[in-house]
Amino acid sequence: MRNLITLFIIIFTSLAVNGQADEIEFISEGKKLNTYFYKGVGTESKPTLLWLHGNPGSKENGTSEFATQLTKNGINVLRFNYQGLWGNEGEFSLGNALNDLSNAMDLLTSEKMRIKYKIDTTQIYVGGNSFGSSTALVGAMYDDRINKIIGVSLCDHSYFGREFMNPNSEIRKFLDDATDALFLPNGIIKQNKEIFINDLTDNNYKYDFVAQADKFKDKQLYLFTGIDDSVCPIETHLLPFYRKLKKLDQKNIEVTIENCDHGLKCETPTTFAEVLTKFIKK
What we know:
This protein is α/β, with parallel strands linked by helices. 32% of the residues lie in helices and 22% in strands. The protein has one domain (7-280): Alpha/Beta hydrolase fold, catalytic domain (Rossmann fold, 3-Layer(aba) Sandwich), CATH 3.40.50. The chain contains 9 helices and 10 strands.
């Protein structure tokens, strides 16, 4: 995944005040990605969350409320937009997002970043919501540096890939409506949807973290999802993975299912920051 990938890292616009975001020049596969580092309060080395947004997410500009809340709890946060999204060059696909994740891990574990931002490299968490949860889990299967994974509103994009290939799929209308709303000619993602879809179907087994659940044997997992999630229902996205892990006697997994929808609108109000802090700081 990382072969022939050129990564240039230049730190600029540094803000000395804890809790404020520094803009990072992060170039993945020749594409400059919108990237910000939110520095956690405190002078000691601290845990760092590499956060992966959903599809399509929103433009990263250093003003994330949940990331700022995490910094107040002594947690660093790195956020970026994938290539092909929000003004970034390139094509948006799970495969390219995985390359971006691998390069972001290079960034976080570099000596320059570790010293500048007091990153405890033994406490790097990779988390994401929706599409970002798929990116985090698939990335962890192929990167030994990713050992602590958080999946919020868990989605299995290998499942979507199989349903794209199934002419009799019961979720065909959902898939067509969703991709038509996101991609050209009417969506905000300026590429044809076939680029995204073909990547899922061509690499279906590679992205199947249920079939390859044994790769998580020595990893730490926290999954938070809503029972009312209609985008990635627990019956087809969370439960098959959870049951496979339990069958493999995976003990280092924690699952929270609340009365929430896909966007984490819950009967008992909660926030991404509360969910993530619980796992990172326990």
